[in-house]
Amino acid sequence: DGWLSLSHMASDTSLFPFKEWLKCQEKAIKSYKRELSEMSYSQGPYVVRETICRMIALTRGVKCEPEQIIIGAGTQLLVGQLMEMNSKGTVVAIENPGYVRFYQLLKKMNLTVHPVSLDDQGINMTEIESVKADVVFVTPSHQFPTGKIMPISRRIELLNWAAQRENRYIVEDDYDSEFKYGTDNIPSLQSLDRNQRVIYMGTFSKTVLPGLRISYMVLPPELVGEYREHYSNFIQYSNSLMLFTLQFFIESGEYARHVKRMNHQYDTRRKLLIAELQQRFREEIDIEDVSAGLHFLAHFHTGKGYQEIEESALRSKLEIYSMRRFMLKKSVNYENRISLVLGFANLREENVAGAVERLYDVFH
Length: 364
Ligand SMILES: Cc1ncc(COP(=O)(O)O)c(CN[C@H](CF)CCC(=O)O)c1O
Fold this sequence. Notes:
Helix content is 39%, strand content 17%. The protein is α/β, with parallel strands linked by helices. The longest helix is centred in the last third of the chain and has 28 residues, at 254-281. The model has no long low-confidence stretch (mean pLDDT 95). Residues 8-9, 74-76, 99, 101, 139, 144, 173, 175, 203, 205, 210, 215, 325 line the site of the ligand Cc1ncc(COP(=O)(O)O)c(CN[C@H](CF)CCC(=O)O)c1O.
């Protein structure tokens, strides 16, 4: 039989309302023929930015005007554009464990990049000071990959740090913030910022479809002018038809209904997977059960090493990602313990028991 996936990356498109999406696409073609006959404005069409602005004000407490929004075909592109604007030798701090794709991207640019460890409140402030960072990348809503939600105290500390000196910025990667189970939604770090120090990054990869490549960032007003100067010859990469379709998908309420449905569906799958894992692995497993996002961290007590586990999973046709994927620099890993990032967005309910059974065989 086929592969089963505990990946945190893919999402199950069987729940996506393609019929409604197509209706919105038809409407977009009817309403925006003229706009489609031209290249869109470098930051993306104004009406789409307006819709995103209204939405994130409602859902994330982000305060902004459409002029501050830059649409991009993927978050990496936006990170690249943003950091191109920084002078040579800018010092960047990034969470470790963290998002290896950003780390690799930043290292390729002429920046000094420091992975910074996490304590129980999130990114370690002492280390940020000691590496003399100018820009700090954080995922406060649901730390990627540990899932930690940054408490208000650490958010305030971080904002105070940024306010202390000119040219200090915080890049808030609000990835995976739309899915909260049981706990109420914590507003964005950007909503607390009084000194124009936070650059807010968002994406539609998890709430709509990863394949559309529609992401955005919100620049503080003072950086908008700089952006426009730097990118005066830039033509927006995103596909305008997709952007106008997204606009109707949001304005029609379909987007909100879809996210609500996915929240419910993912909560059910998450609970099922956790119950199945606890029942099967008993005291061999410690689950970091943060009720948010599309994956959680689980620690397994075993004498086996990462290599052995990853190879055995491959043989058992079980897609899993271990903490090795997210360790930005060599780290001493606790002996007799393997940590896995377990995703459930691509695991149908009927496959939960089967996936856990395969995982059990991988460890035994
Ligand atoms: C921390 C983080 N910030 C943003 C994105 C959104 O990027 P984009 O789709 O380009 O808008 C991801 C998306 N993560 C990917 C799918 F889960 C890859 C995960 C992996 O490489 O481990 C992410 O992890």
